[in-house]
Automatic annotation (TrEMBL):
Intracellular or extracellular location(s): Cell membrane
SUPFAM superfamilies: MetI-like (SSF161098), YVTN repeat-like/Quinoprotein amine dehydrogenase (SSF50969)
Ranges of residues in domain ABC transmembrane type-1: 440-728
Stated name of the protein: ABC transmembrane type-1 domain-containing protein
TM region positions: 25-52, 446-469, 481-501, 507-532, 544-563, 593-617, 638-658, 707-728
Keyword annotations: Membrane, Transmembrane, Transmembrane helix, Transport
Chief location bin: membrane
């Protein structure tokens, strides 16, 4: 006869209504959880997707300036109200940009209002140069062999409409003018560099020029140096710090070191050995560390110093094919992006480090005479036949690409391509390094190390508690271990960072000796226990093993603590850390993966223990009794019946511990040092996805590349958790189906 539950046979309307309401409430709760997860997933996507949007360029306006020469250097102020141009005759013209509210056409060309026009030279074709610092600096040959450096400032007046007023003044660091060639011959090349101040100390600017008779003249402030050259010079360029001078002569590139009055040739590079196409122009990338060479074939190559054999050496790092003979190139002021226009008028935008490129076909009808970015890189200015074109540029995240996020990148100052996460620096020329690989590596590393510590202890304790321990003692042990799970992780991280890490550093030998002795002692005690006759073991009280094991482990801990210093004196030269770092060449950080593995293992053990113990204890008694009745030993029953039946629950326990380790924040934040490096060395630090978000999100600018990449790491963490949980559920179901018939 079948007996049904009273709730199923109760026909009262009130009871049926409560049952239906409960079912619908539970169903609604499950649906809301799924909806919440989907909303979180799509919200993260909405923040991350803009990182991979392509740049866009659109023509905003056309206008003309009252100037007779051909502009050589052009630009704008930070408010985009004024534009300026320095033409080939040495005339500086500053004009107010006209306001235009309709789509420009060939017939809608306005005339800009000139607010400043001043000739800076008395020559027809003077040598000129410009450097984009906080304000533009213009070096112009006033008379043959004599150069003056001008600073163009833009001051904002807030009395009426916050208009911008230009101010032109000579640069006092060089004096009123520099006598480069006493013979009063025109200069063939001219370049200038204005380094930023360093630690409050003013660094003198540098000016370099080449005379008609091939003499290289360098001014560092008012100090002059001169070196004769053997052949004509095609191009020269100065690094941003003014300490390196690049001189291009036919197929040779000479690098000169400038240090006060000392001007010395550092090295010479034969360009024929690198690229066969001749060099047509030479310029510096933003920050003044990388040299850009434009080649006749349309290729642009990037060069910067790489330390080889202890000395810096100029090395070609990247090459970009940007069109059919790149004729105009304009780098951004603050980012490693540049715009190029080839002979067909095709515009290209490229970020040198991330190698993110975008080409725009037929953007110009002819080759522009000059090309420049606005200071904030939200506009591009081009001049064609005295007609100025203002193009609006939308390129918010050029430094982020699939290459920069997931592959090795060769950054300035690094000896080779590497995975690097470094989002901020005190250097103005710094570029963000946003590879997510180091933080993903750190997350997996800390999860693996913590599970190596936690899984053997937790599973072993669960087996002993559920299968061998007496019921009376189990009622005390299990709740006690589960109570540890309620301990705030910030307390564990605090103790690990401020107490455990210094203790491990001062007792390295003892720690490794303890890790070696504990398994050996446990295995030895197990062997001794099995050697005791069975009739003797039956007479011993329940859980007699604990009375022996706990004191033995305490004694091992004391022995390891006292033997560690002796081992250091005898075998490790008296200092284990110095032996590891100097003799073995292994890096050591006080807050390292070993410390966080111990601390994280302590936090993860209760989670794994509780779930695994419930799974083992829930194995039906008739399975165990049947195996024992058939003559199986307790160990055979455990390994061949109990553990197989409980394997779905044990696997779920391990996966729950893995999820806890992957998502843990406070312990890794306080006990790892947060160094995003990729090294399997347990004595080095690391940084995880969750800790990286907690550390850097409060300091990131909303909407910036850094901000969105942090959301990308959160999305990766979300995906990791989803994938791990899905795999765990699939494997658990397969294990349940496989061993459900036992």
């Amino acid at each position: 006869m079948t007996h049904s539950s009273p709730s199923l046979t109760d026909t009262r309307p009130a009871r049926r209504f409560r049952d239906k309401l409960t079912r619908q409430t539970v169903r609604l709760g499950g649906v809301m959880v799924l909806v919440t997860l989907l909303l979180l997933f799509f919200y993260l996507l909405t923040v991350v997707v803009p990182l991979f949007h392509q740049a866009s360029v659109s023509l905003s306006e056309r206008f003309t300036l009252d100037t007779t020469g051909v502009p050589q250097y052009i630009g704008a102020d930070t408010r985009n109200q004024l534009v300026y141009g320095l033409d080939d005759r040495g005339v500086l013209t500053v004009a107010k940009r006209p306001q235009q509210f309709e789509t420009p056409t060939t017939s809608t060309v306005q005339r800009a209002q000139t607010v400043l026009q001043q000739p800076l030279s008395s020559m027809d074709k003077p040598a000129i140069s410009r450097v984009e610092a906080s304000t533009p600096f213009l070096a112009v040959e006033k008379t043959p062999g004599r150069v003056a450096v001008w600073q163009l400032r833009f001051r904002t007046q807030y009395q009426s409409d916050a208009s911008v007023v230009p101010q032109l003044s000579t640069m006092s660091a060089f004096g009123r003018e520099l006598v480069v060639d006493a013979k009063a011959q025109p200069l063939s090349q001219l370049t200038v560099a204005v380094p930023d101040s360093l630690h409050g100390q003013t660094i003198p600017p540098v000016l370099a020029a080449v005379t008609q008779d091939n003499r290289l003249v360098v001014y560092r402030g008012t100090q002059k140096s001169m070196v004769p050259l053997s052949q004509a010079v095609d191009h020269i360029a100065l690094s941003g710090d003014g300490q390196r001078l690049f001189v291009h002569q036919q197929n040779r590139l000479a690098i000169w070191r400038i240090n006060g009055n000392d001007l010395a040739l550092r090295e010479t590079v034969n360009l024929d050995n690198v690229i066969a196409s001749p060099v047509t122009k030479m310029s510096m990338l933003a920050g003044g560390r990388s040299l850009l060479l434009q080649h006749q074939s349309g290729t642009v190559t990037q060069w910067f110093d790489v330390v080889k054999n202890g000395e810096p050496s100029l090395t070609e790092v990247r090459a970009f094919s940007l069109g059919e003979g790149v004729a105009r190139l304009a780098p951004e002021r603050h980012r490693k992006s540049l715009a190029t226009v080839d002979e067909t008028g095709r515009l290209s935008l490229v970020h040198a480090t991330s190698e993110k490129q975008r080409h725009f076909d037929a953007q110009f009808t002819a080759l522009p005479d000059a090309l420049a970015f606005t200071p904030r890189a939200n506009g591009l200015i081009a001049v064609l036949d005295n007609q100025w074109q203002w193009l609006t540029v939308d390129n918010p995240h050029p430094e982020v690409s699939i290459h920069s996020l997931w592959q090795k990148v060769w950054y300035e100052g690094y000896p080779s391509p590497q995975y690097v996460w470094q989002s901020t620096s005190a250097d103005d020329s710094f570029e963000a390094k946003l590879s997510v690989v180091p933080v993903i590596f750190g997350t997996l590393k800390v999860a693996l190390v913590s599970l190596i510590f936690a899984v053997p202890m937790a599973i072993g304790a669960a087996i002993y508690t559920a299968y061998f321990m007496s019921s009376a003692l189990r009622r005390w042990v299990k709740p006690t271990v589960e109570t540890i799970e309620a301990l705030p992780t910030v307390i564990i991280g605090f103790l690990a960072g401020l107490w455990l890490a210094p203790w491990v550093e001062s007792h390295i030998a003892s720690v490794f000796l303890l890790l070696l002795l504990v398994p050996i002692i446990l295995l030895g005690l197990s062997g001794v226990w099995r050697m005791i006759p069975r009739y003797v073991r039956r007479r011993l009280p329940d859980n007699a093993q604990i009375v022996v094991i706990i004191p033995a482990l305490l004694i091992v801990g004391v022995i390891a603590t006292y033997l560690g210093p002796w081992l250091e004196q005898v075998w490790l030269g008296g200092d284990a850390r110095q032996f590891i770092t100097h003799e073995l060449g292994i890096g050591y950080d006080q807050r390292n993966a070993l410390v966080v593995g111990i601390a994280m293992g302590f936090a993860v053990v209760p989670t794994i223990f509780s779930i695994a113990e419930d799974a083992i204890f829930s194995v039906p008694p008739h399975l165990k009794n049947g195996a024992l009745a058939l003559g199986a030993t307790h160990w055979q029953t455990l390994t061949r019946v109990v553990l197989l039946t409980a394997s779905p629950g044990i696997f779920s326990a391990v996966m729950m511990g893995l999820g806890r380790a992957v998502g843990e924040t406070m312990i890794v934040l306080m006990a790892t040092g947060n160094t995003p490096i990729m090294d399997w060395n347990l004595l080095e630090g690391l940084r995880t996805l969750s800790a990286n978000i907690a550390v850097e999100m409060p300091e990131s600018e909303v909407g910036s590349s850094h901000y969105r990449v942090l959301f990308l790491t959160a999305f990766i963490l979300f995906v990791f958790t989803f994938v791990f949980n899905t795999l765990a559920e699939l494997i658990r179901q397969r294990l349940r189906d496989k061993y459900s018939n036992l």
